[in-house]
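Quick question, first post here. What does this chain look like in 3D?
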Amino acid sequence: MSAFIDTARITVKSGAGGNGAVAFHREKYVAAGGPDGGDGGRGGDVIIAVDDHMSTLMDFRYKRKYAAGNGENGGGKRCTGKDGQPLILKVPRGTIIRDAETGEIIQDMSADEPFVLARGGNGGWGNRHFATPTRQAPRFAKAGLPGIARDVVLELKLLADVGLVGFPNVGKSTLLSVVSRAQPKIANYHFTTLFPNLGMVYVDEGVSFVLADIPGIIEGAAEGAGLGHDFLRHIDRCRLLIHMVDVSGSEGRDPIADFETINAELARYSPELASRNMLVAANKVDILSDPAPLRQLRVHAERLGLAFFEISAAANQGVTELMKAAAAELAKLPPVKVYAPEYVPRPPEVDPAQPLEIHQEDDVWIVEGAWLQRLMANVNFSDFESRNWFDRILRQSGLFDRLEEMGIQDGDLVSIYNLEFEYQR
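> Answer (accepted):
Ran it through. Tokens below.
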């Protein structure tokens, strides 16, 4: 049996754009054909897509670094370089993508639409873009923009409507096997269930829900004891909880104490989770030795306003009524929770003190530099605030002062990778 992996930290990098080409049209009987250097290809994106055939993040356990393809350089005859191959990473439905540094949610992969995690760099322009009536033979082109590297954490939170909670060996796996086609491992010892299991429960025509069997929770689970702590995240989305309690007395346990212990662990892990709607299922009534604990648990649950059911999962007794009650309760509740993105992109780390290369081609001033390249890859030029921030960085770097010292004139073009603008003092 393969291991169940529900968290993974990975590094992804989109492809860099290819460089533009410097080339001139040469053909017999065609004089002064002019510049015809093609553009570089765009770098490949890193795309996250849902795969319903996956149930764990096992594929990311050993490989941690992923990179999309780079765009190819442009060529002569206005040939554009080939775009870089996109990288598509498949994850189970319900996977949350978090920023590794801040823990903020970037995307919840619960829907079918793929998500672009890192966009590839734009390809550089070939010299054909820079031909003007006064500059008919430009001998320069633009470099492609770099790709974007991101460290992210993948976290699987199962998409289930109903979660089964309770101590180990109370019969959760048996119930799941009875009401669905799931085939969890069942045995008469603690921690038989080592990872969550999902099953589809069909109640009636057009009425069904997903039921999750979570490994048994024990006292101290919220602090990391036992197995339940590792998988509590998988009931975060559950709209309804079924709290199963062993009332048979076969293990000499106190049902009310068990019930309260599990509720306390849920509250320690997440107060919101502990406040979810809950049904109480007293299991193993078919081998009940003393009815008193059953009566006491019923009174305790009803005092808390919780619906109470006597069942035997092994004997399929009272199970249908419990599933019908769960379906009726779900009909009143909002849909499965989808987490809204929290992540706000941070400005790239740039050091304007690092030198820039500036050279003049006729009336065009070409500015290049490593930090400027990173800056360009992260600026949204369609956004006013982003453009203002870009302008402030350029002024702080002393670029405009340096251009004036070198003799730039009003109306000259400033060319920064795939951006051109007229200089005005």
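The chain has a mean pLDDT of 86.
The CA atoms of residues 77 and 349 lie 38 Å apart.
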